[in-house]
Amino acid sequence: MKRYGGYRWSVLDYIALAVMLRPVWWAAQDYSCEPETAANSAEIGRRIRNTVFTLAETLARVIHWNQELPGLPATAPMPVIQGWKPADYTTCAKLMEDHVISDPAAARILGSNQWPALVGVGSVCRRNLTGPNNLYQIIDALDAVLPPHVGLHLFGVKSTAVARLKDRARIVSVDSMAWNYAARREAFAKRVPKTKELLCEKMNAWIVRQRKMAKPSAQMALF
Q1: Is the pLDDT of residue 18 over 70?
Q2: Which of 64, 89, 210, 216 is the most buried (most CB within 10 A)?
Q3: Residue 215 confidence (pLDDT)
């Protein structure tokens, strides 16, 4: 995002990948709003609009895909809400609801004119839990505007956040690439290849640590 400003593949390419992989769920392409990619409010607003527009385009292309290739069905992506300040996220959610989620055409793939059960929250991977625009404030802002049935997936939250967010009912799942970073650092330090075995070792160790932090709650699924 910092180098190219956007994606180097099309929405249709991305749908084709999702059809091939058959994941349990997949996320719509979103436009991150960290300061490195969005240095001012105007750019944040532009990237929020791009996130909303891309979700609309993806849903339209999924519908068309299923009409043309019914033997290779595509599923609807998980919407991803973007922003930097809490108000940015509520703006993004309102734009999505007004222009995408409530669109009768979207109901053809979403199943209804309402938010799906799982929605992603982007630009939170390095959030602090205190101070301006912290993770709690963002979750509280979204909690105020999203229907009760909507759960949140947090992209790349810190391990310390997992331990402290475990009892927030909205949080359904989290993910991280910290384990991949650890594998790359270890391989570089030892001057050895970054093998699949090393990646699996680091990923499994990460999952074990997160599950311990998430106890006693049983609600959070770790991907």
Answers
A1: yes
A2: 89
A3: 67
- Give the three-state DSSP class for 154: strand
Q: How far apart are CA 68 and CA 87, in angstroms?
A: 40
Domain-wise residue ranges, the chain = 11-175
* Level-2 CATH architecture, domain 11-175: Alpha-Beta Barrel (3.20)
User: What band does 222 get if pLDDT is binned at 50, 70 and 90?
Assistant: low
Nearest to 143 by CA among 114, 101, 171: 171
Task: State the helix-helix crossing angle for 178-190 and 196-214, rounded to 10 degrees.
Answer: 140
Measured distance between the N- and C-terminal CA atoms of the chain, rounded to whole angstroms: 23
Tell me how far apart the alpha carbons of residues 178 and 195 are, in angstroms, rounded to a whole number: 16
The torsion angles phi and psi of 203, rounded to 5 degrees, stand at -65, -45
